[in-house]
Amino acid sequence: MCDNPLLLTDEQMRKFITEGFLMLQTDLPEQFHQQLTEQLNLVYEQEGNPGNNLLPRIRELQKVFLRYLAPFHSERTRPAPVHVEI
Fold first, then answer.
1. Is 84 helix (H, G, I), strand (E, B) or coil?
2. Count H helices, E strands: the chain?
3. pTM, 2 dp
4. What share of the chain is helix, strand, coil (3-state, %, to 5)?
5. How far apart are alpha carbons 8 and 11 in whole angstroms?
6. Between these two residues, 64 and 36, which has the higher pLDDT value?
7. Which residues contact 26 (CB under 8 A, 6 or more apart)?
8. Tens of pLDDT along 13-61?
9. Contact by Cβ (8 Å): 15, 23
10. I want to staple 8 with a disulfide (CB 3.0 to 4.6 A). Which of 12, 19, 38, 54 is the partner?
């Protein structure tokens, strides 16, 4: 559970809704980003657009997802508790 979730600003939300993506800064080294870009370019050149298969196809991208997005994703997708009276 994330006690201090990183929330998007109103401007970030507007941009994401209108443009369909949002660029966020990471603390990963420049070399990581270069390797990721090379992998992405190779997949696009050899296979075309991977569509929804992007995370399984590009393992390095999974590191970004797990490091920055997974804690927030799991919190938001966890079902709310249900109260049942017997």
1. coil
2. 5, 0
3. 0.56
4. 65, 0, 35
5. 8
6. 36
7. 64, 67, 68
8. 898 899 988 887 788 899 998 999 999 999 999 999 988 888 888 888 8
9. no
10. 12
Please say whether the beta carbons of 22 and 12 come within 8 A.
yes
Q: DSSP state, 51? A: G
Residue 27 tokens, joined: 């603390």
- Ranges of each domain in the chain: 31-72
Radius of gyration from C-alpha coordinates of the chain: 17
Among 24, 35, 30, which Cα is nearest to 69's? Answer: 24
The distance from CA 50 to its chain's CA centroid, rounded to whole angstroms, is 16
Taking the C-alpha atoms of residue 46 and residue 51, their distance in angstroms, rounded to an integer, is 14
Give residue 44's identity as a one-letter amino acid code. Answer: Y
What the block records as the tokens of 32 is 């990581």
5's CB contacts (< 8 A; 6+ apart) are 71, 72, 75
Judge contact between 16 and 22, C-beta under 8 A.
Answer: yes
